[in-house]
Amino acid sequence: MTSPSWKLHRGDALTVLHTLPTGSADAVITDPPYCSGGLTSAQRTSQSTRGKYVSTDAQHQLADFDGDTRDQRGYFAWMSLVLGQCYRISRTSAPLLLFTDWRQLPVNSDALQSAGWTWRGIVPWHKPIARPSKGGFKRACEYALWATKGPVDAARNPVYLPGLYSASQPRGSKRFHITQKPDELMRELVKICVPDGTILDPFAGSGSTGVAALTEGRSFVGVELSERYAETARERLTLAAYA
Predict the structure, then answer these.
(1) Which of 53, 95, 162, 165 is 20 to 30 A from 146 (CA-CA)?
(2) Where is the signal peptide (predicted)?
(3) Which domains does the chain have, with CATH numbers?
């Protein structure tokens, strides 16, 4: 049994993915820019990412990130290309987990199938701390679309994972990214990857997927566009590798 390793590329996802070897990843787990948060083009493009996804009373000043202003046609074309490269890089039977909000769930399900992935289902993530919605229902869930490259190979990874998770986003000094996912959630999700396998994340952010992968004995290859967040991810991954 070898110790898990990690590598983080700083650059555009599509550009970097073209350089990665075919059949080198055992799973893809990623949280792309949602290009959401507004029902019209003006709303979607006039707000910063912080304005879209962070409540006004948030106690942090985390950096914005690029790539979050595509309309639906642009997003579908772009995501299809990204997921197509992820498909090439993945081994047969590799799973894909793709985070999305409710607005982008339909287009993401289309994009992953256009890229060749077999859609298997939706894994809801319940957020106990969520913004209230006057006159309606609290938007207390985001989702991970589950897909595979071909058939599910349960013999290689005979796990029984729940279809619903509940966890709050990190707060205070444990919050490193505007849209950061909970560490306890990510540690559960990475178990969909075969033991000792390698997880690919083309939108690494502050490195939460990679930290969870290393903690659970998986290797990690990530790509991050933002230099600031890439540096944060490197720091977190280094600490996780030596924990």
Answers:
(1) 53
(2) none
(3) 6-241 (3.40.50.150)
